[in-house]
Design a protein that fits this description.
The complex is a heterodimer of chains A (about 170) and B (about 350).
Chain A: H1 11-15, H2 17-30, E1 55-59, H3 72-76, E2 82-88, E3 95-103, H4 112-116, E4 122-124, E5 139-140, H5 142-145, E6 146-148, H6 153-169
Parallel strand pairs in A: 1-6
Antiparallel strand pairs in A: 1-4, 2-3, 3-5
Chain B: H1 2-36, H2 52-62, H3 73-89, E1 97-102, E2 106-110, E3 114-118, E4 121-125, H4 133-154, H5 158-189, H6 194-199, H7 208-211, H8 213-226, H9 238-241, H10 251-276, H11 290-312, H12 320-347
Helix pairs in contact in B: 1-10, 1-11, 2-10, 3-4, 3-10, 4-5, 5-8, 5-12, 8-10, 10-11
The chains are: A alpha+beta (about 170), B mainly alpha (about 350).
Chain lengths: ~170, ~350
């Protein structure tokens, strides 16, 4: 059992009016404080290397995708957002995706695809804004997903560094 | 002829002004609340969001007018008007400024009336000067509760009815305090004419806030309850009753309730100024011209309008039994005691 000791109120506090004036003075002083509102579209959130936005496919220097359509990210995706159909090419890397779709409405930006990828082909970019007029339009295909490697470099470096740290500290290694 | 024209002009200016004040108050409410909570508030429509009331008006006009099933159509329609009209009516007797001398403008050939001489009269800035304007104000502002009760009852909804019930109980309780606190002023000035009450406080030392501080506090508290404002807004009470009596209202009907509330606030602030802060009197300038008196009156009124907003964003809502207890156990008794003291002092000839 807990016995709650109520605070004994002084006469001024029981009169209530002085306390009202104290509260009023507080809110009046607050009026002249600096606003902490961020006016979002004009003042975007700061983006750091840790920012985990929507996944994007890495495009190599010669213009082809790094993806070999192994399907590991498709399997790792907990939201079933990824659909891949693979095909063969004449390039040095013999496989490339014919179809690579991410349903951005299903994607939960967890980053499992990035972790699963053995070819460093998919990374979480810092792009966060998502809007569209139809659900179909928010299923992104290769044309909307491909980004030159340089655009994702910050995130790629970060992932490498974190993985290195993990490898060095792992006791099983 | 001139008198009629001048009266028409005064009606246009004063009612237009009142409705604009109500519109600006909706903006001020949002702006001040934002500043008090470290926010910016509406800032997209026009510079600093000053055109926000216009955008709100357009939105209200284009919204669907919804009447709930089982509602009493006639009463449902008439309730917003009954709520807004009394609040706007009371402004007719508010003395906004002293005498205005209109010079002779010459003779004009008007259609239907023939050659008419215009100008050359002295008028004052209130739509009408009743001898019993205090009674008029109290009687008419008391009517606005009908709009709330009918609106709550006619919408065929539990929340609306509860809000209306609470509002009626609260209004009846606080009207007593309101009137009794005013009676002591009436005893002191010996007049029921608002203009006379205002002019009797010519210098700043004669303001009734100094002679009747208790009545002033009681009156201000009662106006908060009368206009259904925080901390006494039990008629609306969003967290408990969704929206209280106007839960089922939408579109311009809702806007009318809203406008009625803000007009009532403006009128009540004007009354507080007239009764306790010397009305349109300018401090330290007894014979000020009307174009100085009017801004003085508006400035004093603006302070009380700000107080309404200020208190709303400072104090939490009462509990309903606390509200009734405060009214019947404290405010009413204090008002009666104050009236007794004033009457005693008056009988002994102290003022």
């Amino acid at each position: 059992m807990v016995i709650v000791k109520r605070k004994e109120l002084s006469f001024a506090e029981r009169l209530y009016l002085p306390e009202i004036f104290r509260a009023l003075s507080l809110t009046f002083r607050n009026m002249f404080q600096r606003e902490i509102t961020r006016q979002y579209p004009e003042e975007p959130l700061p983006k750091t290397e840790v920012t985990r936005g929507q996944p994007r496919l890495v495009e190599l220097e010669e213009g082809s995708l790094a993806c070999v359509s192994c399907g590991l990210c498709e399997a790792a995706c907990p939201a079933y957002a990824i659909t891949i159909d693979g095909g063969e090419t004449e390039n040095f890397i013999e496989r490339e995706p014919k179809l690579f779709e991410i349903d951005m409405l299903r994607c939960i930006l967890c980053g499992f695809c990035e972790e699963a990828c053995p070819k460093d082909a998919i990374f979480m970019s810092d792009e966060l804004e998502l809007a569209g007029f139809t659900r179909k339009g928010l299923v992104y295909g290769i044309d909307k997903l491909r980004r030159p490697r340089a655009a994702l470099q910050k995130r790629i470096d970060y992932v490498y560094r974190i993985n290195d740290r993990w490898r060095n500290s792992s006791s099983t290694h | 002829m001139t008198v009629t024209l001048v009266t028409l002009l005064k009606i246009l200016v004063i009612y237009g002004g009142l409705i604009n004040v109500a519109a600006l108050m909706t903006l001020a409410e949002r702006k001040v609340s934002a500043w008090m909570q470290f926010r910016i508030g509406p800032n997209r429509v026009g510079p600093w969001g000053v055109l926000q009331p216009l955008a709100d008006g357009v939105k209200f006009i284009f919204k669907e007018e919804f009447t709930p099933e089982g509602a009493n159509k006639f009463l449902f329609r008439i309730a917003p008007m009954l709520s807004a009209v009394p609040a706007m009516l009371t402004v007719a007797v508010l003395p906004l400024a002293g005498d205005i001398a209109i010079p002779k403008l010459g003779t004009f050939d008007l259609p239907f009336f023939g050659p008419t001489e215009l100008g050359g009269i002295t008028t004052n800035l209130s739509i009408t000067d009743l001898d019993i304007s205090v009674l008029f104000v109290l009687a008419v502002s008391g009517l606005s509760i009908y709009g709330i009760i009918l609106g709550g009852w006619a919408s065929n909804s539990k929340y609306s009815l509860l809000g209306a019930l609470r509002a009626s109980a609260q209004m009846i309780s606080y009207e007593l305090t309101l009137m009794l606190s005013l009676l002591s002023i009436v005893v002191m000035t010996g007049s029921l004419d608002l203009r006379e009450i205002a002019t009797s406080q010519a210098t700043i030392g004669q303001w009734h806030i100094w002679t009747q501080p208790l009545a002033f506090i009681l009156f201000v508290v009662a106006t908060f309850a009368e206009t259904n404002r925080h901390p006494f807004d039990f008629a609306e009470c969003e967290p408990e009753l969704v929206g209280g009596f106007h839960t089922e209202y939408s579109s311009m009907k809702f806007a009318l309730f809203f406008m009625g509330e803000y007009c009532a606030m403006a009128v009540m602030s004007g009354l507080t100024v007239t009764f306790f802060l010397g009305g349109f009197g300018v401090p330290f300038w007894p014979d000020a011209p009307w174009f100085v008196e009017l801004p003085a009156f508006l400035a004093k009124t603006a302070f009380f309008l700000f107080l309404f907003i200020w208190v709303r964003w400072t104090l939490p809502r009462f509990r309903f039994d606390q509200l009734m207890g405060l009214s019947w156990k404290w405010l009413l008794n204090l008002a009666l005691f104050n009236l007794f003291l004033t009457g005693l002092a008056s009988a002994l000839g102290w003022f």
